[in-house]
Amino acid sequence: MQHLLDAWQFQAGQIAVRKFKGQDGVGKIQMRVDLGILQMNATGRPDGKKPLGHPSLLEHYEARRRDYGAKHGGNHDDFALKGEDCMKLQLEALQYHHRSICLLQLNDFAGVVRDTERNMAVFDLVSKHAETEEMAWALEQFRPQLLMMHTRAAATQRLQASDFRGAVQQIEDGLNRIRSFYTENEREEMLELSDEIRSLEAWLEEIQESRPLTPREKLERALEEAVNQEDYEKAAAVRDALRDLKE
């Protein structure tokens, strides 16, 4: 192991990640951390375990919730997660979070979307069924960070497909969800202080400034230039083109 660490030096402030196929034929991800190398499976539960015969603890507790509902006429309201249950789910969610960071570094945006959506399901389950608000908040407080990661990955997928309008919509939706989180939890002061909001707002502005213009926007800009230059013949022609342009 020491020769691996010597060949892959840790550098503070940098995220060093690599992906490869293990001897078992399963895709693996490694992250270099200060105390060694963190290794995880690229898909499924990161540590490769199947707790209580399920792909993950989330599936286990979702199955318990379904069983509870089946025994109570479809009513899940009184289904409860104890402190130990919440802690186990939080620790498992942390595994997926670490992998999301690695996948983001590897530009595997589909994997980030997959893992962040999975963790949001954990947050929703714990938020609804934790025995106490304190238990729920221990996980819920990280929702803005989770939403930001999901938004960045989903919007980047849109950008890669040259869907600038879709990317803008993804970012705006993510911002609205983060703002709603702070408002619903009576933390309005974070609307101005949140690093997640400021980061997404800056990215949104960057995309809006750099995106290609639509045919209508090009004509509108040409019209403005023609009017400013008092080229009214050109302005009239552009107005006609705008009128004839199909949405």
Topology record:
Elements (H helix, E strand, L loop, with lengths): L1 H6 L8 E6 L5 E7 L2 E6 L15 H15 L11 H23 L3 H21 L3 H8 L2 H18 L3 H21 L5 H4 L1 H16 L4 H14 L3 H13 L3
Helix pairs in contact: 3-4, 3-5, 4-5, 4-6, 6-7, 7-9, 10-11
Descriptive keywords:
single chain, 247 residues, 11 helices
Describe the model.
This protein has 247 residues and is mainly alpha-helical. It has a domain at 215-247. The protein is 64% helix and 8% strand. It has 11 helices and 3 strands; from the N terminus they run H-E-E-E-H-H-H-H-H-H-H-H-H-H. It has helices at 2-7, 57-71, 83-105, 109-129, 133-140, 143-160, 164-184, 190-193, 195-210, 215-228, 232-244; strands at 16-21, 27-33, 36-41. A 3-stranded antiparallel beta sheet has the order 1-2-3, with helices on one face.
Work out the number of β strands.
3
- The end-to-end span amounts to 61 Å
Run of helices and strands: HEEEHHHHHHHHHH
- Total helices: the number is 11
Tell the overall outline: extended
Uncertain segments are: none
**Proportion of residues in β-strands:** 5-15%
Walk across the major sheet and give the strand order. 1-2-3
| Overall radius of gyration | 24 Å
Structural class comes to mainly alpha
- Main β-sheet: number of strands, strand sense, barrel status? 3 strands, antiparallel
Percent helix range = 55-70%
The average pLDDT is: 91
